[in-house]
């Protein structure tokens, strides 16, 4: 195999780079910068690992699959839906821990855990296990950081926002 093919450059495509193995482990924003530098016309699509995708080939599409928890997962509470904004998810404060008597996330009055700050940096699968242990009826939704979300109230929904590149991005 030639050195250009090993580096993700397809000679049959005029030497244009087609994959970026060096991006695994970086944040989505860092990965996007590198891809756009190498391929300015790239249509970058960010998806959680395991998302269903079409099998059609698009020469400008680059999919980035992500899997590491980037923000504290929160269950939607009735009182929090008015101000829910994925860009400003509130981290638990010391007051939360004093009020709820827990050093590991916040809880509602009924004792059900509603946030998991200890999961930031873990894989999605590890985070799901912990959330389901604390909240067995959780409807867990995995989304890339920055994804638009609905503001409706669902008492069992927990959103996990992910942002670390888990697989080699490639054209297609």
From TrEMBL:
Keywords: Protease inhibitor, Serine protease inhibitor. Gene3D superfamilies: Trypsin Inhibitor V, subunit A (3.30.10.10). InterPro entries: Prot_inh_pot1, Prot_inh_pot1_sf. GO terms for biological process: response to wounding. It comes from the Eukaryota. Residues 93-112 are annotated as: Disordered. GO terms for molecular function: serine-type endopeptidase inhibitor activity. Belongs to the protease inhibitor I13 (potato type I serine protease inhibitor) family. This is Uncharacterized protein. It comes from Miscanthus lutarioriparius. The lineage of its organism: Eukaryota, Viridiplantae, Streptophyta, Embryophyta, Tracheophyta.
């Amino acid at each position: 195999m030639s050195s250009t093919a090993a580096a993700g450059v397809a000679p049959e495509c005029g030497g244009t780079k087609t994959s970026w193995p060096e991006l695994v482990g970086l944040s989505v924003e860092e990965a996007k910068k590198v891809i756009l530098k190498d391929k300015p016309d790239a249509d970058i699509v960010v998806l959680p690992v395991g998302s269903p995708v079409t099998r059609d080939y698009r020469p400008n599409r680059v999919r980035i699959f992500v899997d590491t928890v980037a923000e504290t997962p929160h269950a939607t509470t009735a009182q929090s839906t008015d101000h829910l904004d994925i860009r400003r998810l509130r981290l638990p404060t010391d007051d939360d821990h004093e009020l709820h008597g827990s050093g590991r996330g916040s809880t509602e009055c009924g004792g059900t855990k509603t946030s998991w700050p200890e999961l930031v940096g873990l894989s999605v699968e590890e985070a799901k296990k912990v959330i389901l242990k604390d909240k067995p009826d959780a409807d867990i939704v995995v989304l890339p950081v920055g994804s638009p979300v609905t503001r409706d109230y669902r008492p069992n929904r927990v959103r996990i926002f992910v942002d670390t590149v888990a697989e080699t991005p490639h054209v297609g």
